[in-house]
Amino acid sequence: MTQATETAEKPATEEPAAPPQPWEDVLPEHFQMLRLAPLPTDRATGGRPLRFVQFGRAERHSRELSLLRLNIQLPGQRVRREQNHLDVWADHQLRVVRFGPESGLQVEPWNRGLGRFLIAHAIHWAQKRWSTYRLEGVELASKDGLNPDTRNRRDHFLRTQGFEVVYEDTQHMKGSIKAVQVGNLQNTWNNDKVQIVEVIDAAHMLEKAEQNLAAQEAEIRKHEQRVNKYKRDDSSLRFTIACLVTFAVFQAGLLIWIATHR
Q1: What is the dihedral of CA 180, 106, 44, 142, to 10 degrees?
Q2: Is 182 helix (H, G, I), strand (E, B) or coil?
Q3: Preceding amide of 11 cis, omega within 30
Q4: Distance (Å, rounded) from C-alpha 90 to C-alpha 47?
């Protein structure tokens, strides 16, 4: 009885915490500017105007592992920690490449080509060194299967990059990406949607924008001068008309006085 009581009073043993991933605190170190081309309004995502975003990357290497960390930052807009973030891990002992985070790639703004851009850069990085490695198969989020349009967009995006998407059920809810050799993937993206803007190109764009702004200001000043001239002419015309009306009234009164006093 005493033994049983003591056993019951002992706290349940906690499961050991998972060991921290290496390089958890690594932040992007190299940056480029991306131009998101203006696109027609989409029924699902709304307006898609011209935007500029920052693309950051960092690399780490050891004997056992290599890491590529990619990140997209939006000027004046904060996103959740798991959004706009992609890790690529290369395990040199198992000769395996895997993507992170486990929650999957979540991109904001959506439907602008950024997801394909990030995946293409991840594939290109892995293919340069470890094209014979195997990319691990992963389960796809079942929530994307609830909307056929969303699911079709996702599957088209993955298949364009060379991934094989398979489903275990006819409702297309339990989907996964099959394991594939890294060298068989496609490392391209839609350059009509996302363009890398180099520093010299960005400087040229700013210079051109400054010139256009100066030209517009000169044109506005010219129109303002013309409007002011019209206003002065209008005031002169109003004064002349007032004088003529006064003179006409005076003449009419004078004629009436002469006619009545004869």
Answers
A1: 60
A2: helix
A3: no
A4: 38
Check if the beta carbon of residue 100 is closer than 8 Å to that of residue 81: no
pLDDT value for 262: 65
On whether residue 207 sits in a domain, the answer given is no
Residues whose CB is less than 8 angstroms from the CB of residue 62 and which lie 6 or more positions away in sequence, other chains included: 22
The pLDDT of residue 63 is 93
Residue 247 located in a structural domain: no
Asked if residue 53 is part of any domain, the answer here is yes
Q: Read off the pLDDT of residues 139-155 as tens digits, 9 standing for 90 and up.
A: 887 777 678 888 888 88
Place of tokens 């803007």: 197
What is the distance of C-alpha 183 from the center of its chain? Answer: 28
Token pair belonging to 221: 């000043």
Q: Cα separations (Å) of 55 from 67, 89, 107?
A: 17, 19, 13
Q: Give pTM, 2 decimals.
A: 0.73
Q: What is the pLDDT of residues 51-64, one digit of tens each?
A: 999 999 999 999 99
State the pLDDT confidence band at 20, using cuts at 50, 70 and 90.
low
Using CA atoms, how far apart are residues 19 and 21, in angstroms rounded to an integer? 6
Chain centroid to Cα 119, Å, comes to 15
- Residue 210 located in a structural domain: no
- Count of domains forming the chain: 1
Residue 214 to residue 217: CA distance in whole angstroms: 5
Full DSSP string of 72-89: EEBTTB---TTBTEEEEE
CA angle at 56 for the pair 24 and 185, rounded to the nearest 5°: 90
Domain that holds residue 196: 25-202
Separation of alpha carbons 202 and 35, rounded Å: 10
Contact 176, 139 (CB under 8 A): yes
